[in-house]
């Protein structure tokens, strides 16, 4: 014989179980390797570290922020730098910083700088990564050893999504909408 208080507790446990089961199901869909599903190892919104050479002298500008569709001044850029340029134009990348990638052995003078970015599959992923990491105190690491890994389930739970500004994402969606005359 359950009292009404006991029944309330059992309902709350059931509701909690359903919420947790739904969260696990959602995470399993986000898992890039469902056959090896382990809840603690799942990371969502995973990015990739791409770098470009910041050439001061010369004609190639492999770190330029726009105009990649024109292919002007990018002849000496490698495939990754070209992909990075296109991803930056689509606003898929987060700039981490610049570092010296080549030094002259004897003098130690820097011969080449690289700019480092974390790039994501979607603008939404980038926004969640940028603002979510800031909320929970995670950094993207140093430019020469960037951390573009996804967020774990426990990290996602700590993010207050009501504080994330999605206006940039909404504006990009509105720009794609074609309205009839």
Q: If you had to describe this structure to a student in words, what would you say it looks like?
A:
The protein is α+β, with helices and mostly antiparallel strands and 181 residues long. It contains five helices and five strands; from the N terminus they run H-E-H-E-E-H-E-E-H-H. Strands 1-3-2 form a three-stranded antiparallel β-sheet. The chain has a two-stranded antiparallel ribbon with strand order 4-5. Mean pLDDT is 78; it is low at 1-38.
Helix-strand layout with pairing:
Blueprint: H1 4-30, E1 48-54, H2 79-89, E2 93-103, E3 110-119, H3 123-136, E4 141-142, E5 145-146, H4 153-158, H5 167-176
Antiparallel strand pairs: 1-3, 2-3, 4-5
What labels would you give this structure?
181 residues, 5 strands, flat, 38% helix, 5 helices, three-stranded antiparallel beta sheet, alpha+beta, disordered N terminus, two-stranded antiparallel ribbon, single chain
Low-confidence stretches: 1-38
Rg calculated over all Cα atoms: 22 Å
- Mean pLDDT value: 78
Largest sheet: 3 strands, antiparallel
Strand content: 15-25%
Give the helix proportion (percent range).
Answer: 25-40%
What's the total helix number?
Answer: 5
Categorize the overall geometry.
flat
Tell me the total number of β-strands. 5
From the N-terminal CA to the C-terminal CA, the straight-line distance is 68 Å
What would a concise description of this structure say?
The chain is of the alpha+beta class and 181 residues long. It is built from five helices and five strands, in the order αβαββαββαα.
């Amino acid at each position: 014989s359950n009292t009404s208080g006991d029944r309330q507790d059992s309902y709350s446990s059931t509701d909690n179980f359903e919420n947790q089961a739904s969260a696990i199901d959602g995470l399993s869909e986000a898992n890039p390797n469902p056959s090896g599903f382990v809840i603690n190892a799942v990371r969502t919104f995973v990015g990739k570290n791409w770098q470009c050479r910041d050439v001061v002298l010369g004609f190639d500008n492999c770190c330029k922020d726009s105009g990649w569709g024109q292919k002007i001044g990018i002849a000496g850029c490698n495939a990754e730098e070209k992909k990075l340029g296109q991803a930056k134009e689509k606003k898929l990348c987060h700039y981490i910083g610049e570092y010296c990638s080549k030094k002259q052995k004897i003098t130690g003078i820097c011969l080449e700088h690289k700019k480092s970015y974390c790039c994501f599959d979607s603008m939404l992923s980038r926004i969640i990564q940028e603002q979510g990491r800031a909320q929970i105190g995670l950094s993207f690491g140093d430019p020469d050893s960037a951390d573009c890994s996804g967020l774990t389930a426990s990290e996602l739970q700590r993010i207050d999504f009501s504080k994330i500004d999605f206006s940039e994402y909404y504006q990009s969606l509105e720009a794609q909408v074609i309205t009839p005359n």
